[in-house]
């Protein structure tokens, strides 16, 4: 995984709650890779007054796999359908610097807990979020396309690609498109720990005695695999059962760990936004 830090720029600099910001590439990439649905925004054309936002499946990756991270940064690969508007725009658009490709923004968010404070105004989430800014181009090279399809498939369930009917046939290759987002900037934000109330409320004994405060850890749970109506494999494959168990354990641990971390002391509104 890339070990660099994204430089701050106009697009990716975090202004509010700067103490929660991160520009560390491994942290940001890990969040993108663990988020099942990414939200990709773009401007369809100059006549459209609002941007479009699409839910997509994607994963960070470096191609070729043996490339040196000293010279190349990971890109975000996105899976889509041949006739989608986004795929068509990526082949005809240009970035502000004139290079081929469609400027896009990719967002990922995980909620780890419900933070309950003394007053509604101080309620919050424990969360991890990341935003990538970059230029999307269509992957035309067949080898890279197949590699990216395997990468994205295994991002859903590890080892799934080799445990299916592969490689894709001609019709499947024609109908599937892969976008490669060259990341030009990125940032993340992380909120951990318990509630952080205003000093005025912390001095009110009657409030402290009557309002429960704390964190409700929150995580997504993968259920027991349910066989299809035409499934002929008697037992759930080991790779799948292991993934479900280990993934549930990891998610629970992350949410509970975030709940007990020490939250930064509350600052004035001006200081938080500066």
Automatic annotation (TrEMBL):
Residues annotated as signal peptide: none
Entry's transmembrane regions: none
Amino acid composition bias (Basic residues), ranges on this chain: 264-274
One Pfam assignment: Pyridox_ox_2
Skewed-composition ranges (Basic and acidic residues): 247-259
Region (Disordered): 247-274
PANTHER family (UniProt xref): 5-NITROIMIDAZOLE ANTIBIOTICS RESISTANCE PROTEIN, NIMA-FAMILY-RELATED PROTEIN-RELATED (PTHR34071), FLAVIN-NUCLEOTIDE-BINDING PROTEIN (PTHR34071:SF2)
Protein name: Flavin-nucleotide-binding protein
